[in-house]
Amino acid sequence: RLADMPLRIEGLTKRYAGAGDRYAVRDLSFQVRRGQVLGLLGPNGAGKTTTLRMLMGLIRPDAGEIRLFGHLVTPGAPVLSRVGAFVEGAGFLPHLSGRANLELYWAATGRPAADAHLAEALEIAGLGPAVDRAVRTYSQGMRQRLAIAQAMLGLPELLILDEPTNGLDPPQIRAMRDVMTGYAAEGRTVIVSSHLLAEVEQTCTHLVVMDGGRLVRSGPVGEITGSGDTLLVGIDIE
Ligand code: ATP
Question: Which residues does the UniProt record annotate as the domain ABC transporter (predicted)?
Fold first, then answer.
């Protein structure tokens, strides 16, 4: 049933003003089922961020349809509380602690106080005693982890993460991988973007490979990475 499907997109298309006839995303269609970790894979400029921002309601598609849990996403509509999103450069109040920032964020969603959720998210962030220090003292990696934890507050059924491992060191990347697989193993769903095949290969159950704004391959991760597909050559950049 459509209502059980976390995400389904049809013909999603976006061309930025001033980009001439260059499409950032062109006629993109795919769906994600419950329990999947879907990797959106492609080189820089493939259209991953544009796709995720349209899903989050941050930018308006020129054409196409987005359905979250069967609901048609319309511009200006409030983001469903069933969806959590991480994008680069999330803002925090620098003079408040990490904990206070998450408390404030949660309060702003208007949902009832849930200490368990907050504790869970802070645990995921793995900041240790630094959760009670001002965010302005945090390293880039710590801010990143706090932002990811914020996206997970309330354990949304669908978690959308745009390049969550950017700027993290190898142990943090491994921890992030475990967070994503654990998250989906409990019947929730994750969509994560990356330009590194090696990274999504170990985390994702399914892949959508994009290049030049278009879908070039999609399917279960083993079918794609095991195919020796020449389309994937050149994807693993940096
Ligand atoms: P990256 O990994 O570098 O973020 P990406 O796969 O996420 O790449 P997008 O950021 O979605 O790709 O970019 C797709 C195309 O749209 C690129 O050609 C990019 O230059 C262009 N683009 C992205 N944002 C804008 C914008 N705000 N205005 C104009 N063009 C843009």
Answer: 7-237
